[in-house]
Amino acid sequence: MKHSDIENMYRDMGISPEVISYSEEIWNSLKDRWEEIDALSEYNQLKVIKAMQKNHVSEACLLGTTGYGYNDLGRETLEKVYADIFHTQDALVRPQITCGTHALALALMSNLRPGDELLSPVGKPYDTLEEVIGIRPSKGSLKEYGISYRQVDLLSDGSFDFDGIRRAINEKTKLVTIQRSKGYQTRPTLSVKRIGELISFIKEIKPDVICMVDNCYGEFTETKEPSDVGADLVVGSLIKNPGGGLAPIGGYLAGKKECIENAAYRLTSPGLGKEVGASLQVLPSFYHGLFLAPSVTANALKSAIFAANLYEKLGFEVVPDGKESRHDIIQAVTFGNPEGVIAFCQGIQQAAPVDGHVTPEPWDMPGYDSPVIMAAGAFVSGSSIELSADGPIQPPYAVYFQGGLTWQHGKLGIMNTLQKLVEKEIIMKDFGRRNL
Ligand SMILES: *Cc1c(COP(=O)(O)O)cnc(C)c1O
């Protein structure tokens, strides 16, 4: 096939020759990065297959249960597979966990008791957790149950405030929550190595404190997970990385037996715990998605690296930058004005296989404290391992881009964002000549 055939396809899809040639130059300059990511996904693919084989995943595991869901072989085996991948004693992987926030809330509410204190040593947690914790008043928050909260911000250079953390740990501190990903902030994402250093420091001060990591968006972006460097509990969403784009719902917790037990008794009921919870028809997608997850995550990483390099060369602030190593799949690009955020999101939406014809607008989403624009033309509603972008309409007007089940789709999406920004004259038409 001739290269011009691909170019003609892009042109048919509304991308201008300038955007195509600029994008090709960026893409071709990144060959070394692609090799590095292919090696990462190869390693993680082997890790997943090994865990599936060790636990004798069989055809019978793909059948679901109904009703109480006693003796659900597929559910029990999948939880062992997760425990092996994360190198933990146990795991809870359930469709009854509705989303990432629910998984995190479950982990917190089940492992904290009235009078305990929760500490975040890495600054403000993800927006939706503010209501879980009670930073913003909310019905059913930890605060309502008499669980206090303390936060130590990162220092201005992004490093840990070790003195502040030492001072914040007290006799009430029961659980430390560490968010791996930047979420809706422009701080750097924490590498597994840095998380390990933080956990060692905390455990030296208070060995019995539970160290939990909000692992959302981080799974399979490195060869190690936070549970390999001392985390007692890692928590995430199945409509992000580990669901591989196929899981239609769900969340997971992997960690120490006691932490998982606490969570199971809270998710179902005291006395019942892990023994109930019918898997219905979701198990094939949980297994199949987990199998694909290392490769899907790699595609999302490639899409993010492409976006970083493309917008960095145009002069925008990007986090992480074009060269940095990656510890999650999120790419932030700061436009400095609402129009840039909106045009970017509309470009992503227009590249989608589902709902590519709709135009997203900012709206007041539950759980967020400013209007948010979200672009997602996803097979699974709201899935952000699929190509998606969102941006809160507030300074510094940064857009957060993530996902792409295939890098080909990610590449198209990013090319289309540039096309939209040029069409709306947010980026000038002679961008290629000025910046390369
Ligand atoms: C997505 C995310 C959450 C919340 O997950 P939802 O599925 O949207 O509820 C929490 N923390 C981080 C870092 C996330 O990226």
Could you give a quick summary of the protein structure above?
The chain has 13 helices and twelve strands. It has 436 residues and is of the alpha/beta class.
Radius of gyration: 22 Å
- SSE series: HHHHEHEHEHEHEEEHHEEHEEEHH
Note the main sheet: 7 strands, mixed
Mean pLDDT: 96
Helix-residue proportion: 40-55%
Bound molecules: pyridoxal-5'-phosphate
The first-to-last residue Cα distance is 28 Å
Structural class: alpha/beta
Strand numbers in spatial order across the main sheet: 1-7-6-5-4-2-3
Helix segment tally: 13
Number of extended strands: 12
Segments where pLDDT lies below 50 for 5+ residues? none
Strand content: 5-15%
Shape: globular
Describe this structure in words.
With 436 residues, this protein is an alpha/beta fold. The protein has 13 helices and twelve strands. It has a seven-stranded mixed sheet, with helices on both faces. Strands 8-9-12-11-10 form a five-stranded antiparallel sheet, with helices on one face. α3 crosses α4 (73-86) and α11 crosses α12 (407-423). The protein is globular, with a radius of gyration of 22 Å. The protein starts with a helix and ends with a helix. The relative contact order is 0.14. The model has no long low-confidence stretch (mean pLDDT 96). The site of pyridoxal-5'-phosphate has 13 residues, from α5.
